[in-house]
Specification:
Blueprint (H helix, E strand, L loop, with lengths): L2 E2 L11 E10 L13 E8 L2 E5 L2 E5 L3 E5 L5 E5 L6 E8 L1 H5 L9 H9 L4 E3 L3 H16 L8 H22 L11 H12 L7 H7 L4 H12 L3 H18 L4 H7 L5 H12 L3 H7 L2
Parallel strand pairs: 1-2
Antiparallel strand pairs: 2-8, 3-6, 3-8, 4-5, 4-7, 6-9
Helix pairs in contact: 3-4
Length: 286
């Protein structure tokens, strides 16, 4: 297992990795739909945004915490480009979370439960809990460039505190969540792609299925996701391939389960996306 300190080191799903980042923008940055090899815990502070996760879109407000699992397509959508946008977020890998396991006590299992239920968006109504979560993450962020004896243990203490409090609210907040829609037709297309990524998908078939002009569809899809339909399908297929490889599937078989016509096409797409071959990715996930 590699111990990774920075996202720039390209952490993989099998690495021990965590990192907190605080960012403030005076205008909303253009960030296309994307995935990570690890969990992202996102705390909204100020601004006006919506959050798209797979085929669902959520309104985000102060007190909200978003937990995005590995290999999950997500994107922040602006509502007001000119508002100051302030957030803090932490990346943390499954091996790091597993390292906190003690008897039946687990930081990871509640996050996995939320993932299985496709629950990503949680509102922390208790202001004290919300501020404690924020302060714990902010302390980890402040420690990032510190070289002090107690850094790792203090950071692990902060991770224990913030994830435990988040897990508390996951259990409290597992009811249905209200979602919003930017464009109902594009939402249906996204949902269809996410459910049928392993099947052949073409622009002509999608346009015919949803009774929409092909050129209108591609324009609206790019406007909502900042990706072409082809690139979104490719992102979904590569994300699912990574998830299956991480779970122990053989790279030589995965392409058959994720919609690629042959291994060479899968190999080239994976190499372009991840800067390593599927076999190398599998090796680092062991």
């Amino acid at each position: 297992m590699r111990y990774i300190l920075r996202e720039a080191e390209r952490p993989l799903a099998g690495d021990y990795y965590y990192e907190a980042t605080k960012t403030t923008n005076d205008h909303f940055p253009d960030i296309p739909a994307h995935t990570h090899n690890f969990y992202e815990i996102y705390i909204f502070r100020t601004g006006s945004v919506k959050l798209a996760i797979e085929d669902k879109i959520y309104n985000v407000r102060r007190g909200d915490i978003i937990v995005i699992p590995p290999f999950t397509i997500h994107q922040l959508l602006p509502e007001n480009l000119d508002q100051i946008y302030d957030r803090i977020y932490m990346y943390i890998s499954e091996p790091c979370l597993k390292s906190f396991q003690f008897n039946e006590h687990s930081l990871l299992k509640p996050l996995q439960m939320a993932m299985e239920e496709k629950r990503f968006h949680f509102h922390i109504a208790d202001e004290s809990d919300y501020e404690q979560i924020y302060e714990a993450m902010f302390a980890i962020y402040k420690n990032k460039n510190q070289e002090i004896f107690e850094k790792e243990m203090m950071n692990r203490s902060g991770i224990t505190k913030l994830v435990t409090l988040i897990n508390k609210h996951i259990f409290m907040d597992m009811g249905p969540k209200k979602v919003t829609h930017v464009n109902p037709v594009i939402d249906k297309i996204l949902s269809y792609i996410n459910d049928n990524y392993a099947s052949p998908l073409s622009l002509e078939d999608l346009a015919a299925r949803f009774y929409i002009n092909k050129f209108t569809m591609t324009k609206l899809f790019k406007k909502q996701t900042s990706l072409t339909i082809h690139n979104y399908i490719l992102l979904k297929r590569i994300s699912m391939a990574k998830q299956k490889i991480t779970s122990g599937a053989l790279p030589s078989k995965v392409y058959l389960e994720t919609g690629f016509s042959d291994y060479s096409t899968f190999y080239r797409a994976f190499l372009k996306s991840e800067n390593m071959s599927p076999k190398d990715f599998a090796h680092f996930c062991k």
